[in-house]
Amino acid sequence: MPYAVISDVHSNLSALHAVLKDIERRQEVSAVYFTGDVVGYGPKPDECIDIIKEHCNICLAGNHDWAVIGYTDISYFNENALKASLWTRSVISDEHIEDITNFKIIKKMPDLNAMFVHSTPDAPEDWKYIFTTSDAEHCFQHFDHQFCFIGHSHFPGIFEKKADGDIVEYKGSIKINETSRYIINSGSVGQPRDGDPRASYVYINGDFINIIRVEYDIISTQMDMMAVGLPPRLIERLTHGF
Ligand code: ZN
């Protein structure tokens, strides 16, 4: 059954609405899986958590979610991320703190031959990144499934490990090779960083891994960020997608 994977919403309600509408339009999509960071950076944490809970079959936590509930050290956050995290902590409801506390950081789905994690499959709570083929090569040794879905870097892309061991990286959609395994980063719904400001997600239908980009009302999110006094650099970057 076709399914969609979304990640790194970062309290961007307008981007989340646009992505879910695009997924809904593909009527064959049977499930939506969320790989973490519902909050942080953006202006609408409570609203985004409600929607994620309602629409997603899996809700994982990311490092920004853990930051808000005090589960992870935030001293390494840059100044703007730290400000946004502290602001989120000051406004988020107790019910939603509880929700995030209940989110897992890794989930295996044998039916889909897939696992889901925000950062890396080897040590999810260390919040490491997969940027290079050598990062990917290490991580391929730490899961058994055909697919590993990740987020965290906000760069959409796919690493394919072929039957002969070769690893190839793709930036766009590809056809699935039955004898290959894949690490798939769905990019970020709420704060893309690859130079394309459109929201990003992935959907899998039959033979293809599709990386989809969706336009959303960036200005409305920026206005909401201004209204609550979030850092200008975080507001500005949404225009450029980096
Ligand atoms: Zn993130």
General description of the model:
It is a single chain. By secondary structure, the chain is an alpha/beta fold. The protein has one domain: Purple Acid Phosphatase, chain A, domain 2. Helices cover about 35% and strands about 20% of the residues. The chain has helices at about 15-25, 45-55, 65-70, 80-90, 95-100, 135-140, 220-225, 230-240; strands spanning about 5, 30-35, 60, 105-110, 115, 145-150, 155-160, 165-170, 175, 180-185, 200-205, 210-215. Strand 7 (about 155-160) and strand 8 (about 165-170) form a beta hairpin. Helix 7 packs antiparallel against helix 8 (about 230-240). The longest helix has 13 residues, at about 15-25. The radius of gyration is 17 Å and the shape is globular. The two termini are about 35 Å apart. About 45% of the residues are buried. Bound molecules: zinc ion (ZN).
Order of adjacent strands in the largest pleated sheet: 3-2-1-11-12-9
Which small compounds were modeled alongside the protein? zinc ion
**CATH superfamily heading:** Metallo-dependent phosphatases
| Structural Rg | 17 Å
Domains, number: 1
Overall pLDDT metric: 96
User: Helix count, per DSSP?
Assistant: 8
